[in-house]
Amino acid sequence: xxxxxxxxxxxxxxxxxxxxxxxxxxxxxxxxxxxxxxxxxxxxxxxxxxxxxxxxxxxxxxxxxxxxxxxxxxxxxxxxxxxxxxxxxxxxxxxxxxxxxxxxxxxxxxxxxxxxxxxxxxxxxxxxxxxxxxxxxxxxxxxxxxxxxxxxxxxxxxxxxxxxxxxxxxxxxxxxxxxxxxxxxxxxxxxxxxxxxxxxxxxxxxxxxxxxxxxxxxxxxxxxxxxxxxxxxxxxxxxxxxxxxxxxxxxxxxxxxxxxxxxxxxxxxxxxxxxxxxxxxxxxxxxxxxxxxxxxxxxxxxxxxxxxxxxxxxxxxxxxxxxxxxxx
Amino acid sequence: xxxxxxxxxxxxxxxxxxxxxxxxxxxxxxxxxxxxxxxxxxxxxxxxxxxxxxxxxxxxxxxxxxxxxxxxxxxxxxxxxxxxxxxxxxxxxxxxxxxxxxxxxxxxxxxxxxxxxxxxxxxxxxxxxxxxxxxxxxxxxxxxxxxxxxxxxxxxxxxxxxxxxxxxxxxxxxxxxxxxxxxxxxxxxxxxxxxxxxxxxxxxxxxxxxxxxxxxxxxxxxxxxxxxxxxxxxxxxxxxxxxxxxxxxxxxxxxxxxxxxxxxxxxxxxxxxxxxxxxxxxxx
Lengths: 328, 284
Hints:
With about 325 residues, chain A is mainly α.
């Protein structure tokens, strides 16, 4: 990794905690190769022709979205059917479960319980460790977009929000992203100080997961209130500004080999990817003149949902597994 | 001078920046509002602690209430393994913690038809536990004198349940309503034909609990609580003497009672004459 990418790596960790991404200001902030590409893109008429051509021939696929939805629905269906049909493959709920007898425990729920109870039994440790290794390998926040049932509900609510916003009926009220870090700390401290897992009472992930498996309760009203807020006031507010689970998995994903890779060369800098992205601040690098290198890995707050990969007309964004190329 | 300074500042900052500042201020305000909203909702999470005074029955092996609430991860694995679906998860308004398990013994008691307190085995966090960690004290009278013998497996090599503490104690709260006390018998379906509660009857099928409604009784003197109690020596029908010297029958609870609630579930009178006092300890 070059020094520039190292600096960006650290910057993206700050972005995860709510800082705005740093802009390259000096020429030496950008590698010579990337500078060359930035230079040739300036005022290049051919590029406009190419853009129009690519637009005309772009096939907007839903490959990654479909794969993701299928995975998310299958994972949650496995929970539901394991209990409903007593097939016992994945018993429990998203907070804690057993996959064919092997303990799996959600990292944020585990953290809450450990802080509140201050005693860790072996099963809790085994389950948490397994899930930790699993999500370090699979990309941290990929938990959000590939497994969390609230994510799917929020994604549909987002579609309604965008539809209404296009009709100028609602406007997206943005918030300060540092709020999520504040919530993470507040809920951790509350668990530690009161000895009670307060966050679990309002965690839409847990509530929706249990509602699917054990039948819905009144707690779903809170989830509906959140969705209502997201449709009419603030796009994806819970996932973007509030959810401490997202931050926990984001931290886990810092060193994950699974990530989205940005290639500067073919990019037209039109920003379609940023429009569909849940966390557009991780895609700051696609803005004209911002990429610090010819290839830039996207940071840990990225949920690896693949919407940008589906949307990009030039294939400048793609899934990458770090080190896999070397191995093959 | 201060006016002057202000002027200079306005002159130095272009109009765009003012608009941006305003946007930022609004965003900060909205952020504070969202913070308030989420934390306000989170405050509801403390309801269980407020309600904690109200006693309720937890699954076998549950830690004391506060420790139970702090360690439960709300996954419902205990719910999934229970063969009679005795364990339910609390909802928002129950004030027991969203997703925390409890038992409503009158509706469906724990009859140990799993033979081995499977819910404890299923618990991933030790909220339900065979052995309490050393730093958690055992309340006096909560500890069982010895491991309870499950009548259903009395003939097995290992007849006991791996339980060291009771979850409650049965108590005859309405002796005047008790059929045994009145010297009455009972014939028919206890709890009526529509009752959904289930139980394992050894003479029917050891491994398949059936509806209580499908198992009518015909007893000359009501002894349903003692007859169906799954624990050896926990309850018996004894002859007692009233203050006026007359003798009558009455159910008497003994030390081995673990508080499973079967007696409460099968009691034919409404409301039940015998109930489980959740988290109660044995007082000699």
